[in-house]
Amino acid sequence: MANHSDKRFPKAMFEPAQVDEKLAEKIEKPSLNFWQDAFLRVRKNKAAIISFIILMLLVIVTFVGPYINGYDSETQNAAHSNLPPRIDAVADVSWLPFDGTWENRSGEKLYPYEERGIEESYWFGTDKFGRDLFTRLWEGVQISLLIAVLATAIDMIIGVSYGAISGYFGGRVDNIMQRIIEILTGIPNLVIVILLILVLEPGILSITLALAITGWTTMARVVRGQVLKLKNQEFALASKTLGATDFRIIFKHLMPNMVGVIIINTMFTIPNAIFFEAFLSFIGLGLQPPDASLGTLIEDGFKVMLLYPSQLIIPSIVISILMITFNLMADGLRDAFDPKMRD
Amino acid sequence: MGKYVLQRIFYMALTLFIVISLTFFLMQLIPGSPFSTAAKLSDSQLAIMNAKYGLDQPLPVQYAMYMGNVLQGDLGVSFQFSNTPVTELIAGRIGPSLSLGLQAMIFGTIFGILLGIIAALRQNTWLDYGSTFVAVLGKSIPSFVFAAMLQYIIGVQLGWLPVAFWRGFEYSILPTIALSIFPISIAARFMRTEMIDVLGSDYITLAKAKGASGYEIAFKHAMRNALIPVVTVLGPLTVSLITGSLVVERVFAIPGLGEQFVTSINVLDYSVIMGTTILFASLFIFTVFVVDILYSIIDPRIRLSGGNN
């Protein structure tokens, strides 16, 4: 009991604190807007960030790729047909498949470059017409991305307008519009897409159109749900009282509050469109030669899989990376924008 | 409940009617006639052929004829496969597709559910991350890419299983795996979320407090309730199986409906395309219907709109 007057704890330390009522409500950190808030949460999702970086690199390569090795995608050269991939810099690294050899089914190694006395190297090899596959691949990815982005954009415009009108005006309008959607979603997309492309002849535009026509219903439903939730809130009422038109309320006041869900939906639509384009090419409804897309490249590669596997494997890897990164990013964004996930 | 079912049946019929009409009219818009690819026919021969198939009639008459025939289960005759009735053609092809689809569905959902349960029970361990990884891959990689890779690596390179064709059970293993990767990933993701949700509820805590073993809690108490919402994904899964079967059957050269459909698209065999489309659509519409009804039956907590309990 000798510690009654411990010098380490002077009496002054036990004075009651001064409570300033003004400071009680003070917010310590700067307040964040919607985007900053979302970014903070996306940043924690490593998979989404890594996916984003990989995707950006892939997009850069896609647009630069066709110009860096000096070949173009359409020049045919029968003497250089079906060459294996060869990259001079890594040709000696044994575990990389870029040494310019094929292996036939009995395990023998073939050296087509040496046999035919070809000096140049084709990084990803050539196809049966001797076209450079490196250039063709990236031009194909460009077309696939173009179709996907275009279809998604049309999708978004139709879906958002339809959903907003249906939800905002409600009543009989909503009822009729929802019944139409119900019937449309009852029909499998695949059926409509295939029939439309049969009618319109395969091409970039018809594939885009077919994808857009079938894809917008999900967006419309999501947007309608949001509008129903938002349109009765005070800020919408205030705007209405001040004489804003319906159009202005929908697009100026309700829309900014739905950006999150719209972005999430779009991010899921893009990989879906990439998949459908490739799928259509694979069943013979894709782009017509000489145009190439990821789907037609995979289709061509599949036909010669046993002889020249790299022609199938390389585009397959690229489409898989595209799909995985898009899906992971969409997952990450969904978690970040979803207010229920706030921590 | 009865009112709801009736309402759904009405919508089902309406959707089907629209699908059939849509198919019919879109087919009419396709350039070229079924005989344009055939050997050169004289005008009189063409007229005979057109008359035989009713193609010389005005469009509304053709439409009415087709509708009537479809309702009686007659889907017309194939133009390319030497006048075989479409129904016969489909009947001969449906076997492999059906067994492949069922195998993939059963294997996919069971394996996916197990994967989801394991992930939920071992949250944030390598088991959880592993199953999430599988789910992401399964959702992302297109089925035909996956099928071609399986075929190349396991069939050609390793030689463990037959590369293609349809001659027995071992021939069906690779296609089944290729087709079930999507159901696996969807079921696993869904089951994991539901399981985590259920594991946090009070009755699980009670079961724990009463000393039930982990195994008992997981499979006897939690799984049953977590399974209910998983029923809802059966609808989308059927679609994925139909879509997948088109390409997987092509990759593995399986003589099924999907392969048939792709062939008939390439040779513009109208009646087969229409028949198969109608079949696929009915299958989809019917599955969604059954799933909705099933869902309301097995989960008494759900109140249906328009239903009076």
UniProtKB/TrEMBL annotation, chain A:
Task: Report membrane topology.
Answer: Multi-pass membrane protein
**A GO CC term?**
plasma membrane
The record's listing under InterPro entries reads:
BP-dependent_transpt_permease, MetI-like, MetI-like_sf, OppC_N
> Which keywords has UniProt assigned to this entry?
Cell membrane, Membrane, Peptide transport, Protein transport, Transmembrane, Transmembrane helix, Transport
Q: Which residues form the ABC transmembrane type-1 domain?
A: 141-330
Q: Does the record's keyword annotation contain Membrane?
A: yes
Q: Could you name the domain of life of the organism this protein comes from?
A: Bacteria
Q: Which Gene3D superfamilies match?
A: MetI-like (1.10.3720.10)
Q: Which residues cross the membrane?
A: 47-68, 143-168, 180-198, 204-223, 258-287, 307-330
Q: Spell out the subcellular localization from the entry.
A: Cell membrane
Is Membrane among the key words of this record? yes
User: Where the protein is mainly located, per its record?
Assistant: membrane
- Tell me the GO BP annotations in alphabetical order: peptide transport; protein transport; transmembrane transport
Q: Which family does it belong to?
A: Belongs to the binding-protein-dependent transport system permease family. OppBC subfamily.
This protein is called: ABC transmembrane type-1 domain-containing protein
Which organism does this sequence originate in? Jeotgalibacillus alimentarius
Q: Lineage of this protein's species?
A: Bacteria, Bacillati, Bacillota, Bacilli, Bacillales
TrEMBL record, chain B:
Q: Does the keyword Transmembrane helix apply?
A: yes
* SUPFAM superfamilies to which the protein is assigned, alphabetical: MetI-like
Q: Which Pfam families match?
A: BPD_transp_1 (PF00528), BPD_transp_1_N (PF19300)
Q: For this UniProt entry, what is the primary localization, expressed as one broad class?
A: membrane
Check the record and name the InterPro entries matching this protein.
Answer: BPD_transp_1_N, MetI-like, MetI-like_sf
**Topology with respect to the bilayer:** Multi-pass membrane protein
Q: Provide this UniProt record's keywords sorted from A to Z.
A: Cell membrane, Membrane, Transmembrane, Transmembrane helix, Transport
> So where does this one cross the membrane?
9-30, 100-121, 133-153, 173-191, 226-248, 268-295
* Limits of the ABC transmembrane type-1 domain: 94-295
Q: Where in the cell is it found?
A: Cell membrane
User: What NCBIfam families does the annotation carry?
Assistant: Opp3B
Family, similarity comment: Belongs to the binding-protein-dependent transport system permease family.
By what name is this protein known?
Oligopeptide ABC transporter permease
